């Protein structure tokens, strides 16, 4: 009884604290920029003066806990849908769909069937009456749910960052006949490209690549200032994944374990996907004992925490290499840097920086789930989010209008009170069960305890 009253009271305090967060704000345009393969600790290892200037006036999330597999397409689609890969359907850069018998790769990715398991923000925001744009972001030019963003360009590596930026800024500004876009996503392929070629441990090569990335961020800031957008738009700068150093000394050759006529290879990378052609258990057994730095999983036993099982496009067997190890069928090391590995590895995490009228100034957060970026963006735009795997709970701390500390205090209070109450209940139960050993009293007490416990689980 007392517990229920107290819970009711605490809930209403919680509701009051969150009331203002649901209030409609007059939204300002949002620009989402991704620099592919920007490993979180590059920020500590390299100067990045422009990026530091940007987040000193805004916020920084030091590590973004991204989704498995830590590859470009799955993570870029997670950023704009808030879904794990198993729920948005873009599971790798190379896929096979056993239902349609279709193949997906980076040069053949336009078929809508691959993308239609989710809806990216540049489509959803159209329903709020907004114009939107996607510049070379994976999926930009795909017709998803029969629609495309208002403006888009397909990936074209010969178009410079400056050219991409100019188009995006013009789309944001609009003109007499065309309203400016409220949401724009902009993609740039560095420092991923250099990370693969030279490896993240090559300080000389990475310093050069990151200097160019930082110069591009400087250009972004100065162009936004020149056009009057700076201070009037919210900017998110982030990435899809990090990068690990590979080596010819860390090579796993599948041919050493079983002949390739045992399986059809679907994807060969840090996470290898294959279809067994012989008895799956036999093929699995051969792969399972193949190498100490490679873990084999039958689809049904892929760990829950990876959120990488519930989709027909996940193949019957996947192999996950340890950090920095490379799986090949035969031959030599293909690249000095790679990603795709377990998303719990810090080397696989990117960062998130943001600035603009909705953000706090000079605030830093240790980490955030990358699926939380989508509900944050929907909140910034006042767009009702589609079903997703993220929450606004942590991300709201980044916002100027939020009383994040208060919410944290209320949470701490609730946890504290519940801890004390459960201790008292526990002691009470102990005393009672010692006094009356009758099975009836014992049962009744247990039922009561369970009843009280229910609201805590919500
Ligand atoms: C909500 O915001 C208004 C003004 O913006 C403020 O006066 C009020 O105290 C806030 N309420 C809560 C519960 O934070
Ligand atoms: C990509 O997929 C298309 C269509 O299935 C195929 O024709 C093409 O050869 C593939 N390209 C690569 C590089 O695998
Ligand atoms: C890529 O961009 C270049 C330079 O802007 C252009 O000349 C070329 O036609 C584009 N390629 C494709 C495939 O659109
Ligand atoms: C690092 O990269 C540079 C190119 O920027 C290259 O000349 C050098 O050989 C690389 N060093 C190592 C140790 O791979
Ligand atoms: C499968 O791999 C094993 C081990 O390398 C080999 O003995 C066998 O011949 C392979 N092929 C088939 C069709 O089983
Ligand atoms: C992620 O969200 C989707 C859509 O709501 C849902 O179907 C799926 O079960 C969620 N995944 C997890 C692990 O909660
Ligand atoms: Zn890459």
UniProtKB/TrEMBL annotation:
Reported cofactor(s)? Zn(2+)
Q: Where is the signal peptide?
A: 1-17
Query: What is the superkingdom listed in this entry's lineage?
Result: Eukaryota
Key words of the record: Blood coagulation, Cell membrane, Disulfide bond, Glycoprotein, Hemostasis, Hydrolase, Membrane, Metal-binding, Signal, Transmembrane, Transmembrane helix, Zinc
Q: Which Gene Ontology terms cover its molecular function? A: bis(5'-adenosyl)-triphosphatase activity; metal ion binding
Localization terms from the record: Cell membrane
Q: What does this protein do?
A: Hydrolyzes extracellular Ap3A into AMP and ADP, and Ap4A into AMP and ATP. Ap3A and Ap4A are diadenosine polyphosphates thought to induce proliferation of vascular smooth muscle cells. Acts as a procoagulant, mediating platelet aggregation at the site of nascent thrombus via release of ADP from Ap3A and activation of ADP receptors.
Question: What protein name applies here?
Answer: bis(5'-adenosyl)-triphosphatase
Per the UniProt record, the source organism is: Parambassis ranga (Indian glassy fish)
Q: Which gene encodes it?
A: enpp4
């Amino acid at each position: 009884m007392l517990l229920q009253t107290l819970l009711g009271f605490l809930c209403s305090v919680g509701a009051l604290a969150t009331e203002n967060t649901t209030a409609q704000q007059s939204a300002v345009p949002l620009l989402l920029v991704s620099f592919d393969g920007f490993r979180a600790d590059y920020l500590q290892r390299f100067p990045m003066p422009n990026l530091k200037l940007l987040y000193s006036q805004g916020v920084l999330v030091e590590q973004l806990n991204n989704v498995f597999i830590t590859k470009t397409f799955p993570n870029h689609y997670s950023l704009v849908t808030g879904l794990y890969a198993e729920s948005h359907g873009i599971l790798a850069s190379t896929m096979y769909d056993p239902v349609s018998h279709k193949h997906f790769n980076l040069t053949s990715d336009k078929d809508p069937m691959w993308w239609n398991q989710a809806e990216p923000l540049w489509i959803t925001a159209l329903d709020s009456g907004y114009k939107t744009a996607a510049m070379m972001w994976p999926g930009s030019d795909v017709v998803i749910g029969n629609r495309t963003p208002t403006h888009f360009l397909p990936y074209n590596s010969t178009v410079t960052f400056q050219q991409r930026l100019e188009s995006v800024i013009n789309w944001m500004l609009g003109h007499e006949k065309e309203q400016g876009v409220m949401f724009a996503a902009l993609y740039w392929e560095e420092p991923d490209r250099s990370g693969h070629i030279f490896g993240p441990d090559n300080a000389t090569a990475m310093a050069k690549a990151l200097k160019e990335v930082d110069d591009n961020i400087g250009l972004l800031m100065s162009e936004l200032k020149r056009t009057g957008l700076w201070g009037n738009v919210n900017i998110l700068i982030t990435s899809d994944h990090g990068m690990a150093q590979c080596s010819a000394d860390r090579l796993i050759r599948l041919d050493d374990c079983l002949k390739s006529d045992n399986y059809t290879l679907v994807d060969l990378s840090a996470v290898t996907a294959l279809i067994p052609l012989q008895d799956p258990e036999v093929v699995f057994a051969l792969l399972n004992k193949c190498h100490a730095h490679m873990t084999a999983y039958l689809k049904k036993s892929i760990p829950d925490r990876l959120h990488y099982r519930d989709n027909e496009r996940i193949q019957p067997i996947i192999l996950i290499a340890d950090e920095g190890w490379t799986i090949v069928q035969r031959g030599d090391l293909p690249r000095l840097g790679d990603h795709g590995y377990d998303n719990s590895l810090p080397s696989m995490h990117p960062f998130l920086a943001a600035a603009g009228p909705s953000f706090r100034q000079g605030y830093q957060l240790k980490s955030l789930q990358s699926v939380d970026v989508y509900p944050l963006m929907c909140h910034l735009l006042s767009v009702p989010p589609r079903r997703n795997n993220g929450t606004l709970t942590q991300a709201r701390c980044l916002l100027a209008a939020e009383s994040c500390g208060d919410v944290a205090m209320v949470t701490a209070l609730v946890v504290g009170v519940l801890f004390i109450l459960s201790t008292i209940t526990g002691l009470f139960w102990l005393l009672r069960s010692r006094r009356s050993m009758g099975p009836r009293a014992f049962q009744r007490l247990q039922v009561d305890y369970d009843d009280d416990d229910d609201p805590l689980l919500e």
